Amino acid sequence: MTPAAELRAAATRLREHATEAYLALIGPALADWLDDAATDAEMIGHNPHALAVARAILGSPVDRSSR
Fold first, then answer.
1. Would you say 9 and 43 are in contact if contact means Cβ atoms under 8 Å apart?
2. Is residue 67 part of a domain?
3. Alpha-carbon span 1 to 18, nearest angstrom
4. What is the pTM of this model?
């Protein structure tokens, strides 16, 4: 999966599964940030911090080479 695809998948997961009260508050803003980071990843390269957040949300293994 490309960094942009991972970022978008995490944004989608946040939007679809924001059921906890705290996640309902922060989820939409975080999802927007991940979508913006996905666009940036396609145009100028990925943000390693955004990708780390996306991977944590998705439960993806950490890839140290993408830092």
1. no
2. no
3. 23
4. 0.64
